[in-house]
Amino acid sequence: MLRVELTSTSVVLECLMAELMRNPRVMKKVQKEIGRVVGKKPQIDMNDIGRMDYLKCVIKENFRLHPLGPLLVQREISGNISIGGYDVPAKPRLFINAWAIQREPSSWERPEEFFSERFENNRVDFKGHDFELIPFGVGRRGCPGLAFGPGLLVLSISLPMSYIGLIGSCQMMMNYMGTWI
Ligand code: HEM
To answer: What PROSITE patterns does the entry give (predicted)?
Structure first.
């Protein structure tokens, strides 16, 4: 199980790296923030993570555009229900399409664009209370890795980037992940 779940974090990280390479404007902003908060310190701590507000927006935007498994959230329906005017009988398995929900134009302006600033001064989070952003699922069967999955991403991105730049960090991360997968 641990092997699989570390793989999930590395897949998300890979998408994040790709988005940073595709969006040099965002990458520069992230590098600047990391430089300001971490500088050349040999270690980063929880206080540093708390101060990287832009990186958090970037991570949220990455979760929005690239949910790990678009149909990973599944539920069995316990009783007859009605959803959006459709009657659904008890028992069938319901696949919740996070990919479509997180690109829904009525919830997100310019949904196809990687625009991290949309999360600045925005209460929407991925903790399972805002149903327009559900990369970790929701409710009792939601992902228990929520507590540290995003933290792992911040650490993985910020440490290598503050020293050796993105390309080097990509290689380093891939090597690092390779030791776990
Ligand atoms: C960025 C990383 C991760 C993402 C995006 C992610 C996403 C998800 C999603 C969407 C689900 C289904 C939730 C639902 O049905 O409501 C899930 C389930 C689960 N995740 Fe994660 N996950 C991540 C990392 C982790 C980590 C690091 C761990 C553990 C160390 C973990 C452990 C689990 C377990 C045990 C379940 C099954 C929960 C259940 O069925 O009750 N995940 N994950």
So the answer is: CYTOCHROME_P450 (PS00086)
